[in-house]
Write a structure and sequence with these properties.
With about 110 residues, this protein is α+β, with helices and mostly antiparallel strands. It has a domain of about 70 residues: Arc Repressor Mutant, subunit A (Orthogonal Bundle), CATH 1.10.10.10. A hairpin with a 2-residue loop joins strand 2 and strand 3. The chain starts with 8 loop residues before the first helix and ends with a helix. The mean pLDDT is about 90.
């Protein structure tokens, strides 16, 4: 059995903050769209179908949290994912959800 590590209130708040950050579907869509490439806001607007103000707002939140980074190229701001652990976390969650969905589908297919 793995020994539990004690977490301070500050650590718990930091962890909760990270999960809150990832709880917004548009942020997840932006991160998925960025993947391992760089994109400017215009490209992200086109790829996500969201409005420019909405994309910019979410990029600002993720930039402040250190999940994405920004560099200037002339008048454009170019964004990329700077915290690759986000993809690892999403993979764990998606893998588990896929197993749950398969279990439900198998249960339902036997019912009819």
């Amino acid at each position: 059995m793995k020994k539990k590590e004690e977490l301070s209130e500050e650590a718990l708040e930091m962890i909760a903050s990270r999960f809150r950050l990832l709880s917004d579907p548009m942020r997840l869509k932006i991160l998925h769209t960025l993947g391992d490439q760089e994109m400017n806001v215009t490209d992200l607007v086109g790829a996500t179908g969201a409005g420019q103000a909405n994309v910019s707002k979410h990029l600002g939140i993720m930039l402040g949290a250190g999940i994405v980074s920004r560099r200037k190229e002339g008048l454009n701001s170019i964004y990329s994912v700077s915290d690759e652990t986000i993809f690892e976390l999403c993979e764990v969650v998606c893998s588990r959800l896929k197993k749950q969905l398969e279990t439900r589908q198998n249960a339902l297919s036997g019912a009819f």
